[in-house]
Amino acid sequence: MTVPKVHVNDQSPVADDTSPTREAAESPSSTTRKSLHQNIIGKLRPLPFQYHWTVWYDRHSESTDYDKRLYVLHEDVADIATFYRVYNNYPWDKVRLRDSVHIFRKGVRPIWEDPENLKGGCWRFRVPKSKAQEFFHEIAILCMANEFQAALEKEHDHVLGVSSSVRFNSHMISVWNKLGSNERSIKILERTILERLSPELRPTSSGPNSYFYKRHDENDGYHEAVAAHVSS
Question: Which residues does the annotated region (Disordered) include (predicted)?
Answer without folding.
Answer: 1-36
